[in-house]
Amino acid sequence: MEEATAILSRTPSTLDALVRGLPDGWVAANEGGDTWSPFDVIGHLIQGERTDWIPRARLILDHGEAKPFEKFDRLAQFVESKGRTLPSLLDEFAALRRENLQALESLHLSADDLDRRGRHPALGTVTLRQLLATWVAHDLDHVMQVSRVLARQYSDEVGPWRAYLRIISGNQG
Amino acid sequence: MEEATAILSRTPSTLDALVRGLPDGWVAANEGGDTWSPFDVIGHLIQGERTDWIPRARLILDHGEAKPFEKFDRLAQFVESKGRTLPSLLDEFAALRRENLQALESLHLSADDLDRRGRHPALGTVTLRQLLATWVAHDLDHVMQVSRVLARQYSDEVGPWRAYLRIISGNQG
Description:
2 copies of one chain form a homodimer. Chain A is mainly α. The first copy, chain A, is 60% helix and 5% strand. Chain A contains 10 helices and 2 strands, in the order H-H-H-H-H-H-H-H-E-E-H-H. The first copy, chain A, has helices at residues 2-8, 11-19, 24-27, 38-51, 53-63, 77-80, 86-106, 111-114, 128-152, 166-169; strands at 117-120, 124-127. In chain A, strands 1-2 form a two-stranded antiparallel sheet. In chain A, strand 1 (117-120) and strand 2 (124-127) form a beta hairpin. The longest helix of chain A has 25 residues, at 128-152. The interface between A and B is large, with 51 and 52 residues.
């Protein structure tokens, strides 16, 4: 739990350091098609704070497997972030994360609690421990995504170095 | 140039926010075999500040293609970082990056300068513009790597959610 919250508490400042104040071209850049920009990603993380992690944790503690999770809306940010600025989204994400980490702490979860089960609408039975680990990995997934989206704007500009840059070549190794 | 330095100036604080003060288990974690930990990555970035980006830019401006770049030592950090702490590496990286961005500014590069050519020992002819774009993408590549290394420590802990987490499943899409 301490390990997990060490990452969870850092994500807002990591993303803040990475994107706040960047020129608009970077903030709105994506990887083509319906892929997401850094702006879209912050909105998605806000949605997670509002409707996913802590609400699902409470559902597991209150109802176990009897009541499946609400389906998470992966596209909500395209409505919710309309007209917003990046700094205001970053501020909101940081505030919600702070509140949710306080909420998590106030649950005083025991090892037994972490083994309690809930029901994911698509994945089936999951534990509270898995939910919290996923919260952490999901943060890092989106930090990775924002770095990748930014780097790929230079896919051509790097010239022959493309071969060495896994972030551009798409090779994760 | 302004776009590039916007990212370059942010990388030290991004990595600082992501890893400073994390429990040792996270800092030393890697992806198995001879893959790198967050600690190794910061040492590698320091090495780049010392021997790669600005020294190569100066070589291009002073000697063009006549004098190939020194080969970059990708493993130097395994000697240089011995006995160091993560906070001291983060401080050093931030200080070197600050100095190098000042050095870059003091070169007053024109569009013509950016088109000047140098010789990479393996890749052949490259331009100063490509070198600077690679500096940016290389930063982001390693921010991505650190996020991925951290997330993969939870490969098993996330349970069935593994299918949805590209950072763990290895699917970049």
